[in-house]
Amino acid sequence: MAKKTDKKLSGWDFSPSPEGTSHIALKDKYDLFIDGKWVKPSSGKYFDSINPSNEEKISSVAHANQADVDKAVKAARKAYNGAWGKMSGKERGKYIYRIARMMQEKARELAVIETLDGGKPIRESRDIDIPLACNHFFYYAGWADKLDYAFPNRKVESLGVAGQIIPWNFPLLMAAWKIAPALAAGNTVVLKPAESTSLTALKLAEIIEESGLPAGVVNIVTGFGDTGAAIVNHPDVDKVAFTGSTDVGKIIQKAISGTDKKATLELGGKSANIILEDAPIDQAVEGIVNGIFFNQGHVCCAGSRLFVQESVAEVVINKLKQRLDSLYVGNPLDKNTDIGAINSKEQLQTIKKYIKIGQEEGAEMYQSPCSIPTKGYFCPPTLFTNVAQSSVIVQEEIFGPVLTIQTFRTVDEVIQKANNTPFGLAAGVWTDKGSRIFNLTTKLRAGVVWANTYNKFDPTSPFGGYKESGFGREGGLHGLEAYVKLS
Amino acid sequence: MSRLEVLKTYKIYIGGQFPRTESGRYYQIQDGKGKVIGNICLSSKKDVRNAVSAARKAFGGWAERSAFNRSQILYRIAEMLEGRRDQFINELMIQGASKVNAEKEIDLAIDRTVYYAGWCDKYQQLLSSVNPVSSAHFNFSVVEPTGVVSIIADENSSLIGMVSLILPAIAGGNTCVVLASETLPLCSITFAEVLNTSDLPAGVVNIVTGKKAELIEPMGNHMDVNATVYSGSNADEIKKIKELAVQNVKRVKTYNKKWISDESQDLYLIADLQEVKTTWHPIENIGGATSSY
């Protein structure tokens, strides 16, 4: 039975409820998945994939270099010129459905591996990441033979070979967002997962192998930034799709500026979450927590800038602090865990750096007094009040469980403050009044606006940013545009 | 001693159950050589009424399911159809099809089911709109299913004609009552068995067998049916359906298509059984902030 302990120390004390790991199948060493086969990296180099919650090695993963990427692009080109390129949309769709179904069958295994490899709470990988990834394949499978409906009066053709580079915050989900629409539109793929989270992409490669998808249609090359650069710069890649930081996005945009490569960039954000005085306060507090602490704040659209109307600021902030104290930080595999491990040592250092800057800038910090494990990479949920628009921690993306809180008096003022950022990925609005919601959704310069909710995703719903948060949309009918040539 | 084959009793499908017709009547169908294939339920007006009640009861739940869930269920129907492929080929051949044509028909039926499974969560983006009204309102139109649909299936096909009409109706969230081909009814009941093992809620699809001359009337004039779909070219039947529709302003959709073709499937078969709902919502415009900021 749950027993209440000293609230100031750790909130609620739960009996541990860890998800089992005995049912998962992981190899000690993973090669590259190229042309339907598992091949050794030409450099012979492998790197360790680490469990960030205990710093133990899970598996070795191949480091692909330029020669390996070249091999993968050639395989993708061969498949594109061969069976896949000639296949009808109807048959392509059936392959994608097959992959979706096999992912659903292995959903629990994928969820456990995602949590082991990336540190996110099992509750999130089990209930959000993996189902959404499966559903994304299921959704785009249905578009494969309906492309003419998506682009009326245009001739729709595939692009060719898509080079795709994905981040470590939603490893399998990002792979699904990239691969599923690319295949539906008839392209072939070379995908690079992030170096700290390669494993579910490699499990997906196993599923793709089992599905009977023609060799070379999907190639998975693991590695670091140099591997990604080799994909971006490969002359036979027709399209580059990247999700990651704005800095790297700009490097990619520059690298391909002299070419005809088509690109979609889904980059960073510093999204405003706006609480108006008539908002349902308890729900809004939950929304703030979900907005910033979902996936340890490793979310490009995280509601990392909180704006609270002055008249309710005190009550919202007090409730928020109380709620912070009850968040359970710890073993990501435990079903009670709210906040898991920070994805890597480097990221933990980045977050700590920003926390230090915030304090040095004179902001007032509040951290949950929760106990955190001694091993692994963990960060308690953190709030900063007394921050200015010009504060570094208000301007820059931290990508961790750190929230800045500002207040405002009028709707006008908050629109200006919310839009005053180089980013434009998402925003949240909390109010009881529908007419205010539509006023704000009209005026906020962001690709997604959540009203009285936050961090909701669906395969049918387009996602992507304004301004320096990138261009192109993923999801829905709109997500197809990234992978077709229209004439 | 050779083993004696167990013959199947072809019943009808109402509310997820397989009853015999309440009328107790039957009619016989024969193969090309005049041999009797089976005793088929000669359904009555009362059977149609029972089927409409079941369809109405199922409508709210089916229409309000997530589009994704409807998609999953239609895909499951395709999986179940694939597993019974040989049975359908056999039945189509008993009813006179060549092996090649029978295989073509079942394969197309399976693929068409996958096709409409794909549409379940996509037609909305193509058929709905945001309307740029001049006043300070957010104004949008969405499509919603018409309701209970009576479907008079194509007379010349046992499987694909019927499947081609049921799928767009249920993909769009409608429920239906289907009158199977009078002369080629076998696959309709086997298809009902597929539906019954596909997680499709009871009552979403109901299938009766019998005589058109007798059943077009209750299918067409039932006051709790919102639309009638007819496949074929019999001018008298079409005229009758249109007349019957008047009393409660049923939508009537008639098709004269060659269903055994990849072309005979599209978004507009779904759109034909959708209503458009427009919502107005005010936008509060206070202060001078614009998106220029």
Biggest interface, CB < 8 A: A-B, 37 and 32 residues
Gyration radius of chain B (Cα, Å) is 21 Å
**Terminus-to-terminus distance of chain A:** 65 Å
> What is the strand arrangement across the widest sheet of chain B?
7-6-5-8-9
The helix-and-strand class of chain B reads: alpha/beta
Chain-averaged pLDDT of chain B: 96
Structural descriptors:
heterodimer; A: 487 residues; Aldehyde Dehydrogenase, Chain A, domain 1; Aldehyde Dehydrogenase, Chain A, domain 2; 7-stranded mixed beta sheet; 6-stranded mixed beta sheet; 17 helices; B: 293 residues; alpha/beta; 10 strands; 19% strand; elongated
Characterization of this structure:
The complex is a heterodimer of chains A (487) and B (293). Chain A has 487 residues and is an alpha/beta fold. Chain A has 17 helices and 22 strands. Chain A has helices spanning 7-10, 66-81, 83-86, 89-105, 107-118, 122-141, 147-150, 171-184, 199-211, 225-233, 246-255, 281-293, 310-325, 345-360, 392-395, 411-419, 434-443, and strands at residues 3-4, 12-13, 29-30, 32-34, 37-39, 46-51, 56-62, 156-158, 161-165, 188-192, 218-220, 239-243, 262-266, 272-275, 305-309, 364-367, 382-385, 402-408, 426-430, 448-451, 470-471, 484-486. Residues 1-9 of chain A have low confidence and may be disordered. Chain B is an alpha/beta fold and 293 residues long. Chain B has a single domain, classed as Aldehyde Dehydrogenase, Chain A, domain 1. Chain B has a 5-stranded parallel sheet, sandwiched between helices. In chain B, strand 1 (26-30) and strand 2 (36-41) form a beta hairpin. In chain B, helix 2 packs antiparallel against helix 4 and helix 3 packs across helix 4 (99-119). The N and C termini of chain B lie far apart (90 Å). Chain A binds chain B through residues 90, 93-94, 97, 135, 138-139, 141-146, 149-150, 410-413, 415-416, 419-420, 433-436, 438-439, 442-445, 459-460, 476-477, and chain B through 67-68, 71-72, 75, 111, 114-115, 117-122, 124-126, 138, 262, 267, 281-291, 293.
